Structure formats: C-alpha cells, structure tokens
Amino acid sequence: MTKPLVPDSSPPAAPARVPSTAAALSLLVPGLGQLTQRRPAAALIQFGTVAGYVAVALGTGGSRAVWLAVLWNAWSAADAYWHVRRLSRD
What we know:
- The chain has 4 helices and no strands.
- By secondary structure, the protein is mainly α.
- The protein has one domain.
C-alpha cells in the first residue's frame, strides 16, 4: 500500500545568496542582508539597534553612540555573510 502524498509543512529554506552580496546589502542598510535571507527577526534587531544608536547620537551629540552604530553595522554585515556561508556548508 502506498502513502498518500502530504505537502511538506516545514518553512521554506532561506535562499542561497552570494555571501558578499548579503554583506554588502547589510552595510548599505543594516538588516537588509538578513531580510533577503528571510530572517525578519534578525533584520529587525539589526536595523533597530543601529537606528537606536543613531537616535541617541543625534539627541545627545555623543560620538560614542556613532561608533557603536558603525560597529553594530559591521556586525550586521558579518552576520549576513556568515549565515550564507553556514548554509552553503550544510
């Protein structure tokens, strides 16, 4: 006897992207690389954190918040790059 065909209910996998493209998108707009990888929660965290640091820097005139925004943006790009690399190894 054969089993009836049941559609797979697992979520779709993140699309395979070129790691450098994902990193470049995240450098352009923090979280954009994660968004193209179908990781909306990570994209929101990346964008929200950088936006928060920029808002604090503009509100207080603090250069430390600007540097934190730059560092977090670099981390966002690295995260997008590493995620694609991790997927390509699996």
